[in-house]
Amino acid sequence: HHYRRPHRVLDVLSQEPDLLHDALKKTVNVTVNSRRFTLTALNALASIEDPVRLLQTRLHWSKTQLSEVAALLIRANIDAGRIHDVRALERFARSYSIPLSHFDGLFVVKALMSDKTYDEAGAVFDALPPPEQDTLKRYHTIGLVLRSQQGDVEQAKGHYDTLVQHHVATHRDQASLLHAHATCGDAAGAVE
After folding, report:
1. CB burial class (10 A; 0-12, 13-18, 19+) of residue 4?
2. Cα–Cα distances in Å, from 187 out to 30, 162, 174, 190?
3. Which of 74, 127, 130, 170 has the fewest CB atoms within 10 Å around its CB?
4. CA quadruple 61, 65, 68, 73: dihedral, nearest 10
5. How much is the pTM?
6. pLDDT of the chain along its 192 residues, tens only?
7. What is the rounded distance in angstroms from the CA atom of residue 67 to the CA atom of residue 71?
């Protein structure tokens, strides 16, 4: 029965996704028991050998359920370092029009960036809807770093300018913009 446990966790969370999803978004005020439950559930979800195939068997679920569960599986696989499953889950969600939140989409982008697959990260980033106010800084900071790694000075500058306009730019953001100039060989822009 052990092999079925992660599938059962997935089924329970499809009915009560807030059990985990809210805890994943909070960085403060999360109780020790909540954090322990979250880690246990994510470990169980990460042990699912073929998460895409499992989601395919759940296509009768609502889009909301599929969206929440896909996000949880993505997060579990990011935490487990299984970037190939993260890619597969994101592609599956996109191909079946299963929406991922801005928050979860940015997690995928960061995971792909950490794997140095910048073009793939760029494609996921480009598919994200415009940011809401609560994700604006995170969106533009990640966009700035991504475009800097790609050497796309124009887009990096656009992200940086938005951060400046909203008074949330940091020295690290400025360094990312300089990196974009350096990456594309623009020495003059890098020393501005």
Report:
1. exposed
2. 46, 23, 15, 5
3. 130
4. -30
5. 0.81
6. 334 576 666 666 666 666 655 555 555 455 666 667 777 778 888 888 899 998 999 899 889 888 888 988 999 999 999 999 999 999 999 999 998 888 889 999 999 999 999 999 999 999 998 898 888 999 999 999 999 999 999 999 999 999 999 999 999 999 999 988 888 776 555 545
7. 6
SS3 content of the chain, % helix, strand, coil (to 5): 75, 0, 25
- Around Cβ 119, how many Cβ atoms within 10 Å? 8
Q: Give the residue among 50, 47, 37 at the shortest CA–CA distance from 2.
A: 47
E strand or H helix at 26: none
In angstroms, the Cα distances linking 39 to 46, 71, 80, 105 are 10, 15, 11, 20
Q: In the chain, what is the straight-line distance between the N-terminal and C-terminal CA atoms, in Å?
A: 63
